[in-house]
Specification:
294 residues; mainly alpha
Length: 294
């Protein structure tokens, strides 16, 4: 431990200070025009990236227009649900979402006991759907999954949850990491869809199934197609609904809202502030729309 502390003090900290000093020197050169479009051949590169990530030939304008129309459709569906639950839907989307977000009944206590209950409830959600996945998947083999809190040192800037795939040799299980830094980032109505997306039947189920396949080149087991990977996880949420596992109307708000993830592309000529403002106005957890998403 003493050797480790010495290395961190004499090597790591000075390197970070040097890096910070450099970033501060070049800060005056930066602008809000964040995007490859301003670079040589930027438009061509952007289009190539769209093709890579979406596996389509849609242009940025096509995707942006689709995103705008889908946002309007999704907001309408959410407002219908919120109105049925007594929230002020007639006053506009943002007003209704803030009213939902400010309702304390949707949150766990911000305590060690509350945090432990969140992890426990995530386990219960996955245990329930794992027991029924055979109804919709032929001969499923579901590997164990671990549930952990995102480490404290990085949870402030991390996503609400994420999945870490298991080791190829099976010596380490896949892990569902939950972010407990801000208790309001984990409303009860959003937990089911998040668990289905990240774990079963989403990322964990899809990735571990790929690991079990025989007769394929190794890269086919772990090099993802983003459109397929995230498309499957998003579909998994809908699949759970079709299996009858989502009965609370407000959980459907969580289900519907996650489709916003599909609408956050094509804004290539917006600066970072425009993108942040647009994202914040359309998200369920308005205060949680972070710079990291942009």
């Amino acid at each position: 431990m003493s050797q480790c502390e010495t290395i961190v003090r004499d090597k790591v900290y000075p390197a970070y200070r040097q890096y910070l000093s450099y970033m501060q020197r070049i800060l005056p050169l930066s602008s809000n025009d964040a995007g490859v479009w301003k670079l040589p051949n930027g438009d061509a590169y952007y289009q190539q990236q769209l093709r890579f990530f979406t596996t389509t030939n849609m242009t940025a304008s096509n995707i942006h227009e689709l995103g705008i129309s889908e946002t309007a459709r999704i907001q309408s569906e959410i407002l219908t649900i919120l109105e049925s639950e007594g929230y002020p839907a007639n006053e506009g989307f943002s007003k209704a979402i803030f009213a939902l977000a400010d309702d304390p009944k949707h949150y766990y206590p911000d305590s060690d006991e509350g945090h432990a209950q969140i992890i426990s409830d995530y386990k219960t959600i996955i245990r329930e759907i794992t027991g029924r996945i055979g109804e919709v998947v032929r001969n499923p083999v579901i590997e164990d999954i671990d549930f952990q809190r995102i480490p404290l040192f990085k949870e402030k800037d991390s996503a609400g949850a994420y999945y870490e795939r298991p080791s190829m040799d099976g010596s380490r299980p896949g892990v569902f990491f939950a972010n407990l830094h801000d208790i309001k980032a984990t409303p009860k109505y959003g937990m089911k869809t998040l668990a289905y997306h990240e774990a079963v039947p989403g990322h964990h189920f899809q990735i571990t199934t790929a690991n079990q396949l025989k007769g394929l080149p190794l890269f086919r087991s772990f090099v993802p197609s983003i459109a397929y990977l995230e498309g499957w996880a998003l579909y998994s949420e809908r699949l759970a609904y079709e299996m009858g596992l989502i009965k609370d109307p407000l959980v459907n708000v969580g289900l519907t809202s996650r489709t916003f993830s599909c609408c956050e592309a094509g804004c290539r000529y917006w600066n970072s502030l425009q993108t942040l403002d647009a994202g914040a106005s359309h998200r369920l957890h308005v205060s949680k729309y972070r710079h990291g998403k942009v």
